[in-house]
């Protein structure tokens, strides 16, 4: 039983976003960052390895790309968390999609553009359609950025049409 | 005389960043966004046209890419503003480089991924090495995001070695 539950926890959130073309997290975007997020107890984790093109300065990961990773990781986490508190598997009915309300990033030190970065996010508040998350970025064992992100549920399959991609 | 000064104002900030490999603003990064910023009176303007790969959702510009545009546009503006208040041309000695301290973005509505976006930034405070900027994003005539960004001067040619790319 324990084993099964652990395997479920490693389900990637992004594998349950049908037709996702997003530059940060869409598996339908071959030019994108294609991040993958999964639960590690109460924290959502993302491991991602930069390509050279995502430099800010030489050997330093671009801050905007870090913001993109944080943003997409947190939107995925908001969706997965909603399923968790509703006691249902990620990807089950109804589908929810989140868009970013605010994205506040504090850069602490450079992240290497040559090594894997780890993001760890957790939900700090849910209020109606609004989920607030705290996300940390680590590079080579050091914390290099932290962020507070507000995700807004802008799509709910029970209320919106399937193809409705607009914010509200 | 007027004509000459107007021409100088349209100098792109990024044309004075030698060897810049940055994903957002480096002209030495052929895979990057290659933004260009220029003065329009007291506001720094950037016009940028998305490629399809930078989708968030279909036809909507990715929020992380918007953060990248804001970030790089503001770092360039902090550098150009420092030259302006020192009464010297962009690109003259000493070279300054800025890195992001904090990046706070509020998303107001979707930006089209099919149309040019305009960024307008202005400096709201300079305190020692720290420059605070306010930046707005417009898409199809509507304001779609606003941001407050803190830029830190991390490189000063008078103090650092030319090749020194590290923050601090």
Instruction: Walk across the major sheet of chain A and give the strand order.
Output: 1-2-4-5-6-3
Quaternary structure = homodimer
Going by helix content, strand content and strand pairing, the class of chain A is alpha+beta
Helix content of chain A: 10-25%
Order of helices and strands of chain A: HEEHEEEE
Q: pLDDT average of chain A, as an integer?
A: 91
Biggest sheet of chain A, open or closed, and with what strands and sense? Answer: 6 strands, antiparallel
Instruction: Output the radius of gyration of chain A.
Output: 16 Å
Number of domains of chain A: 1
Largest interface, counted with CB-CB under 8 A?
Answer: A-B, 40 and 40 residues
**Runs of chain A with pLDDT <50, length 5+?**
1-9
CATH topology of chain A: Thiol Ester Dehydrase, Chain A
Q: How many strands in all of chain A?
A: 6
- What is the second-level CATH architecture of chain A? Roll
């Amino acid at each position: 039983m324990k084993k099964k539950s652990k395997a479920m926890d490693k389900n990637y959130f992004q594998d349950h976003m049908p037709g996702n073309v997003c530059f940060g997290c869409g598996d339908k975007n071959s030019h994108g960052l294609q991040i993958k997020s999964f639960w590690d107890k109460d924290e959502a984790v993302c491991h991602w390895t930069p390509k050279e093109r995502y430099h800010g300065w030489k050997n330093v990961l671009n801050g905007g790309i870090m913001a993109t990773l944080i943003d997409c990781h947190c939107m995925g986490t908001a969706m997965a968390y909603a399923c968790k508190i509703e006691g249902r598997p990620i990807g089950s009915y109804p589908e929810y999609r989140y868009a970013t309300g605010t994205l506040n990033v504090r850069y602490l030190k450079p992240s290497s553009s040559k090594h894997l970065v780890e993001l760890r996010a957790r939900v700090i508040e849910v209020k109606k359609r609004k989920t607030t998350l705290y996300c940390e970025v680590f590079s080579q064992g050091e914390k290099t950025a932290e962020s507070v992100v507000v995700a807004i549920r802008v799509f709910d399959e029970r209320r919106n049409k399937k193809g409705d991609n607009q914010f509200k």
